[in-house]
Amino acid sequence: MVERPTTPPPLQGPTAKEKKYDRQLRLWAASGQQALEDAKVLLLNTGPGVVGVETLKNLILPGVGDYTIVDDVDVAEKDLGVNFFLEESSLGKSRAEETCKFLQELNLEVKGHAIQKSVEAFVEKPTILDNYTLIILIGPTKASGLLENISQHAWKSSIPLFYVHCAGFFSHFSVQLPAQFPIIDTHPDPASTQDLRLLNPWPELLIFMREKVGNLPWLSDHEHGHVPYLLLLLHFLVVWKATRNGKPPASYSEKKEFAALVAAGARTNNAEGGEENFDEATANVLKSLNPPSISSGLRDVFEADDCKILKNDSANFWIMAHAIEKFHTANKGLLPLPGALPDMKAQSSDYIKIQNIYKAKARSDLAEVTAIVRQLEKDLDRRTPIEDKEIEAFCKGAQFVKLIKGRPLRVAKSTESLDWSDRAEVLSMELENQKMVGLDSLLPIYFAFLALDRHNDEISRLEQSRREPNPLKDIPGARDVSGAVFPSPKFAESAHFYTPAVNSEKDPKPWPRFDTPEARETFDNVVKELDRANGAELHNIAALTGGMVAQEVIKVITKQYVPVDNTCVFDGIASKTAVFNI
Amino acid sequence: MTTLANGPKPSRERWRYLDNFLNKPGPTSDPDWLPGEQTINGLETSKVLVIGAGGLGCEILKNLALSGFKDIHVIDMDTIDVSNLNRQFLFREADVGKSKAECAAAFVEKRIQGVKITPFNGKIQDKAEEYYMQFKMVVCGLDSIEARRWINATLVGMVDMENPESLKPLIDGGTEGFKGQARVILPTMNACIECQLDMHAPRAAVPLCTLATIPRQPAHCIEWAHIIAWEEHRKDEVLDTDDPEHITWLYQKALARAQEFNIPGVTYSMTQGVVKNIIPAIASTNAIIAASCCNEAFKIATSCNPWLQNYMMYSGDEGVYTYTFETEQKEDCPVCGNLAKNLTVNPNMTLQEFIDSLGERAEAQLKKPTLRTEEKSLYSQFPASLREQTAPNLTKKLSELVENGEEIGVSDPAFAIAFKYKLVFSS
Ligand SMILES: [Zn+2]
């Protein structure tokens, strides 16, 4: 073997932390990791308490900054059969402290705190919630007032709140995001992000196209077979437009015709019987020749009041969105060029040249947007300028930004019906549509969990009235005429009578239409199955739900990818999920 | 029945939550099912094999132990790396370098009283049919498609119609980033992994001529360093992608090449990603997929509810989306079907080109195939004498070697069985 000096270490070799987190940094990069490490997550735990602990496991491993477990239960024998983060020696000790301790072992860089208190006692002063970045509340809560309290405070303070149920083979979680939750880095599918702007080429691109393709028929076979497809399409667009009043192919059939024109330009008198670059060109006709348009997500952003009317303290997002909207109008519907180029058959130098032409254009678009942003900042008298890299990220992903409109949680109470008038139509349609394609909607699972909440609220109300010695102060309906307290109802019976009603003045037809036998049967089966569970968690379902909730928490904390909007149910019998905007 | 277990038998109170499902029927459980002692006994005596003790495997072991299984075996040939610690929660920094199977087994056994976990630090191919015959079912958490195909073919091959015990359900999970899938395979009864192979097509390889003459992407430069430069400068050494010196060498070669062609973007991390074919992996996705697999294992072992028919795909990139459906068993599946699979080929392609294409075709994915027709050997990788004897065929056109529609047998050292294909000439 040849003597060879050992390779010196690379200048930008990975740090110990980069090594440990390598597999996730490839998903959310250093910026996402920083957001995660800055986050303080609060778990308000009740019931068997497994799903919350499993969620935390999936947040502690990737390095969430800080977690707090609030739980007032002492570890019992039955906990050891379902919760992995306890051991024999935990018996009789605080469950908050024991689970906190065993979770802490997973990652010493994370700070864990245990608070041995009931959720009610902990949120007695709800401002305590303001110490946290995100709250995970495990249901059912003892009474609806508690859930309402937490939900209202989180809403007021714009703290994302996850409300989770996990019982038997079913689970549910609802995400209460702030009223406006914009996401810039949605990580769209790379195949869908190509904006080559072929219908609106700029001078530098056209000059290079003429230089390379001007004498197409006289090119050598090698050169001809290596003209990048993007230039071929530009060239044939010029040819096409010359005979069509300067109009590019628009309809599907015109595009087909155009593709045939391109294909006919390939040389076939070679060993392969064609040319790869021409194949790529024809394959990209449908995808690349679309007039500029904006996604529905971006339209939502442009149309939001916060985008139209800027204030001195508007979030950076809205200043940038406003600037992009101005750019969009000034450039006849174009968005800033993202600047990325897909790989294509080409000589290295030609490809790099085109790549640089696209990058230069992206930079000049970015400069235009930045100038608008700076002017807005001046006009609004804002002190801290938005960072350049933030504007750059927005320009790159403008087409794919999303605005999620958070909504307060629905709180099921024993004393009043939920008002569904704003969602009745959409949700009825969900039931109808699923029936039409021969599937059972999973919506009844969500309603069964609401029924469970309502049932718990009722029990708590009855218990309270039992403790109340003075019947005059009694809660209405808690005692019969003789003054005796009613027996506590069983869940299966009480759920049966629980059908959410709508405001009959706004919607004269009663809803939901559980009169469809399918929906009624699903609902009844879910209730029976929940009754079988009798509050028990199955470890698998808790682990699975903990995985789903953790994914969503990570998306909310990093503001990357797109979180659930806003309610998700899992059916562990059919192995299916569904998402509803409730 | 728990004589196998470690420590004293804990009281049944510990399993109070689980027993709600084992002692009572539900609205969708099989009406003929008998809940109670018999079901509990069945669960506790079901011997389960877990293949893989990595991201999925750690979760699977925890989940099975907390689902009431008492006798679990686990196979893994890997040792613990520091990059595992962001998700493989049974391992600590001090465990780096130790056997995954042994570490994981010891941890779960210590944490959960009454469960016995038997590790095997080695390859699945080291074990014979008799070994696999002892299990009630197999749960797979692997990142290698080859190992999946091997165990699939082995379990399909073990099925003896006279002996119902020979049918071992295979529950398989896989993840990538925020996505994953879980599937239940009843060998010979429904679609097997080979039937579904084209759903997991490999990424198209970059043509060698692009790497050699016209690189455009940073990955092209890295692949060039990996495939061409290493062979040129260090051919006597085996490339070890876990050796930082090797990766650094490749990175610097790739960087120099990229600079020569003005290609931006080669980084150390990308070099590692391309060379090791790194798939992003996170704890939460592993939790979802592993739990889904174990949920199915639990339902199969207890009959307490119906199980998955037969594939669930999960995607968490944009909201939460699952697609649960039944994949069809294929008549021409080379493993569980009766008919040879049609492969459409250009009759003018050489045997060498055909062999290369077998590695890339989604429905074949065979890297070192040996091919024969019913009468003659077309090309044999081993032994060397036969390889030399058949090598001249490599430059011949397919039309000179086989008839249109002729059946060929293809074997590959990565698999225990031969695949049957029917070569159909394209017109
Ligand atoms: Zn098959």
TrEMBL record, chain A:
THIF-type NAD/FAD binding fold domain sequence ranges: 21-561
Region (Disordered): 1-20
Keyword Membrane recorded: no
Keyword Transmembrane: no
Pathway: Protein modification; protein neddylation
UniProt keywords, alphabetically: Ubl conjugation pathway
Signal peptide start and end residues: none
Family: Belongs to the ubiquitin-activating E1 family. ULA1 subfamily.
The protein's name in its UniProt record: NEDD8-activating enzyme E1 regulatory subunit
Protein source organism: Stereocaulon virgatum
Lineage of the species this protein comes from: Eukaryota, Fungi, Dikarya, Ascomycota, Pezizomycotina
Automatic annotation (TrEMBL), chain B:
Keyword ATP-binding: yes
Record's keyword annotation contains Glycosyltransferase: no
EC number(s) recorded for this UniProt protein: 6.2.1.64
Record keywords, A-Z: ATP-binding, Ligase, Nucleotide-binding, Ubl conjugation pathway
Segments crossing the lipid bilayer: none
InterPro entries noted in UniProt: E2-binding (IPR014929), ThiF/MoeB/HesA (IPR045886), ThiF_NAD_FAD-bd (IPR000594), Ub_act_enz_dom_a_sf (IPR023318), Uba3_N (IPR030468), Ubiquitin-activating_enz (IPR035985)
Pathway(s) where this gene product acts: Protein modification; protein neddylation
Catalytic activity as recorded in UniProt: ATP + [NEDD8 protein] + [E1 NEDD8-activating enzyme]-L-cysteine = AMP + diphosphate + [E1 NEDD8-activating enzyme]-S-[NEDD8 protein]-yl-L-cysteine
Span of domain E2 binding: 343-426
Origin superkingdom: Eukaryota
Family indicated by similarity: Belongs to the ubiquitin-activating E1 family. UBA3 subfamily.
Function per UniProt: Catalytic subunit of the dimeric E1 enzyme, which activates NEDD8.
Protein name: NEDD8-activating enzyme E1 catalytic subunit
Taxonomic source organism: Stereocaulon virgatum
Lineage, uppermost ranks: Eukaryota, Fungi, Dikarya, Ascomycota, Pezizomycotina
